Amino acid sequence: MDFLADELEDLCKKGLYRRLVSMTATRGTRSLIGGKECLILSSNNYLGLTHHPEVMRGARAAINEWGAGSGGSRLTTGNLSLHEDLEREIARFKGTERAITFGSGYAANTGVIQALTGKEDVVLGDFLNHASIIDGCRLSRAHFLVYRHRDMEHLEKLLKESQGYRRRLIVTDGVFSMDGDMAPLPDIAVLAERYNAFVMVDDAHATGVYGKRGAGTADHFGLDGQIMVQMGTLSKALGSAGAYVAGSARLIDYLVNRARSFVFSTAPAPAAVGAALAALRLLQEQPEIRERLWENALFFRKGLKKMGYQVPEEDSPIIPVIVGDNDSTMKMAGSLLEEGVYAPGIRPPTVPPGTGRIRITLMSTHTREDLDWALSAFARAGKKAGVI
Predict the structure, then answer these.
(1) Per-residue model confidence (pLDDT) at position 313
(2) Nearest Cα residue to 271 out of 245, 244, 243, 241
(3) Catalytic annotation present for 83
(4) Selected catalytic residue, list 236, 240, 316, 364
(5) Which of 177, 235, 316, 364 is catalytic?
(6) For 263, which DSSP code?
(7) Would the pTM of this model clear 0.70, i.e. be above it?
(8) Among 75, 177, 248, 358, which one is most buried in terms of CB atoms within 10 A?
(9) In angstroms, rounded to a whole number, what is the distance separating the alpha carbons of residues 246 and 206?
(10) In-domain check, residue 3
(11) Quick one: 69 and 129 in the same domain?
(12) Within the chain, which residues score under 70 in pLDDT?
């Protein structure tokens, strides 16, 4: 097993070695890291619902009624009426006929793509798609074509060149997790109709955040009924764990039978399902939670620009601060941690080489005092790292 040591040493030399950071006493926007209280500025818990009393109450009620685990796969002993309650609520929320839940976003993407395509088909994906989409394409054995990021001319060219395949699936992140920009979904839908393809969108970072109802990118662009496969997670803005796919009744029936990550996985735990159900209802009853998120994102983005950071114009609660090489990225992350701000450095392969960054994500529960304090920390850390 000597190769393990060699591989780890190589990762260290390239500035790509990763360590787990232990958090204790995590509570909302703050956590103890190494015994020091830090402001969390990198969480996907966009709406702060993980610690919302109603969401925690939903988790506890589910445990009290159903126990700690589901006890089996959905097709054997694990299909609780609680799962079906959540799926009906998701379908109403998304405006689709039905929905199905998975244990994680990774399981949903790999399972769905593998179920819908095979070696006679082609999948066309954005260059910056999430790793779970890429792995799903590889597992499917379909021919995999990558178009340049949000480049619709390139996508159309690939669609023209791939008309001999049995089926063609266009798959994209709705909101790209490392940059915060959105897929041009209306243009993708037009091209899909023109070239007889179908579309799958990964709304992991859009569910609960984007759209008139917070229902994601199809909701945002007014494309209800035009996107065949809408995937999203329950683990980010909804504050729980797991994922879903929403679509037609026929699609969901098919996935129940053919998505291997659904068929051969233990059903999501009751606590996660109960929490997600409570979060979904809360999101629809209290839209002001989303409004606070967007106010915080606008405030912080303006503050970074004012002090000289080059940040994208995209309106998003995800704000990437591009640093560049791996060592500089980690030094700036270390400087921020010294200031009491936890915003870890993001390096390849999560992002393309040379684009190491601090990925900031805002939360509804960040106070204005939190954000003022974080901006002062970014001013000092950025100057120390030579970024501003």
Answers:
(1) 85
(2) 241
(3) no
(4) 236
(5) 177
(6) H
(7) yes
(8) 358
(9) 14
(10) no
(11) yes
(12) none
